[in-house]
Every structure is written in C-alpha cells, then in structure tokens.
C-alpha cells in the first residue's frame, strides 16, 4: 500500500528529527530527493548520514555527480544529477557498478534528470519552500508501513 506523509520543516532541528527517523527505517534502497535549489535536499542527506554514524563533512556532489560513503560497513551513494545533460552520461560514469552494490543506500537528488538509467524509488521525498523561504514542506511517499507508523508516532 502506498503511504504519504506531509510535515513542515520549520528549522534544521525538524530536518534533523526527520533524518533520524529515516536513518532507522531506510538504510538500503533507492531514495529520490526532489525539490528546487536550496530546498534542503543536501541538508536532509547530511543529517541522515550523521544519524547513521557518519563523522565529517557531507558535501553536495553537484560537480562529481556521486559522493560515496561507507558508514559502519554500509555503502551509501549520494548522487546529485542537477548538472546532468543526458541520462546516458550516467552509463558512461559507470552507474551500473554502483547500483550492483548489495544492500546499499542510494540517495538521488534531481532524479528526473536520470531518466531510465536509475531504478524506481523505494521512498520519494519532495521538499518545497514556502513563499517567504522560511519553512519547508516535506512530502514522503513509500510502501513502508514501518516508516509510516514511525513518522506518525514522531510527528503527529
């Protein structure tokens, strides 16, 4: 069953709290992070990786396309497809090698630019900025009953 959950991210603490829930329920799979420039996709990713135990910086892979992490033996790949001109560029960079990594977590910013070169998402997070740019609204869509229950417990 498809679940949807909406919440306001009024500050970075709210984003951090969301990331903590996500880090417990999505440690593997394909995640789409959708939102305009400056919506908070990389900020959410940073808190998510920190909640999983990452120490150190988390930078946007805008120019490198992918930033790999290994946290406690867990492979995580953070992709930013914003500068991609053609989905085929992913094939040329060897995306299949990344996607064949067992039990990995794949975070895709700007997934629409990946076309059919990237797999379907297990979780879609759409973050929209308010008109005054002070609040972010996050909509999460997945088939995970456990995530839905955790979100409801934490945020309702």
Automatic annotation (TrEMBL):
<dbReference type="InterPro" id="IPR027417">
    <property type="entry name" value="P-loop_NTPase"/>
</dbReference>
<dbReference type="GO" id="GO:0005737">
    <property type="term" value="C:cytoplasm"/>
</dbReference>
<keyword id="KW-0067">ATP-binding</keyword>
<keyword id="KW-0479">Metal-binding</keyword>
<comment type="similarity">
    <text>Belongs to the TsaE family.</text>
</comment>
<dbReference type="InterPro" id="IPR003442">
    <property type="entry name" value="T6A_TsaE"/>
</dbReference>
<keyword id="KW-0460">Magnesium</keyword>
<keyword id="KW-0963">Cytoplasm</keyword>
<protein>
    <recommendedName>
        <fullName>tRNA threonylcarbamoyladenosine biosynthesis protein TsaE</fullName>
    </recommendedName>
</protein>
<keyword id="KW-0819">tRNA processing</keyword>
<dbReference type="Pfam" id="PF02367">
    <property type="entry name" value="TsaE"/>
</dbReference>
<dbReference type="GO" id="GO:0005524">
    <property type="term" value="F:ATP binding"/>
</dbReference>
<dbReference type="GO" id="GO:0046872">
    <property type="term" value="F:metal ion binding"/>
</dbReference>
<dbReference type="GO" id="GO:0002949">
    <property type="term" value="P:tRNA threonylcarbamoyladenosine modification"/>
</dbReference>
<keyword id="KW-0547">Nucleotide-binding</keyword>
